[in-house]
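Bench log. Compound arrived from synthesis this morning; before running ITC I wanted a structural hypothesis for how zinc ion sits in the protein. Inputs:
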Amino acid sequence: MKRIIIHWTAGGYFPAAEEKMRYHFLVDKAGKVHKGNFRPEDNEICKSGRYAAHTGGGNTGSVGVAVCAMAGFKNRNHVGHYPVVLEQFEAAMKLCAELCVKYKIDVMSDTVMTHYEFGLKNPKTSSAGKIDIIFIPPYSWISQQEAGGFIRSKIKWYIQKLRGEN
Ligand SMILES: [Zn+2]
């Protein structure tokens, strides 16, 4: 696996059946990790109907991690009834750290990114204009532009923790 792409489901707090088709891992409100129907390895070579289609134009080699939340989100002032909660977000960051270690993925802006960042870098794909993740409710002071960098810092911190460096 060459990279991890991080999403929100734009759904409720627990994974729906169709969401499990789309992501490899889904983190619910309590921070519990649910496995999707496909394994990350199924995205090494994407065969029709046999991989998790989480990132238009960028599924090959990509692990898809989603936080189950954000249905009804309009903007940072109107977040809907399912804003990402702290425990859930932290669990997702810890999961990404574990995946980086498992698949030997360095935490860089082109290897660990949000779907939003992927869309910015790949404007001709169907990922262009995706808004996950432009806002992190438990860290509401982080701007849209800073969210990806903040997520990478968090994941790096969890990797150090896993390695017993702090
Ligand atoms: Zn997405």
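What the model suggests: The chain has a mean pLDDT of 97. The domain at 3-162 is CATH 3.40.80.10 (Lysozyme-like).
ITC booked for Thursday regardless.
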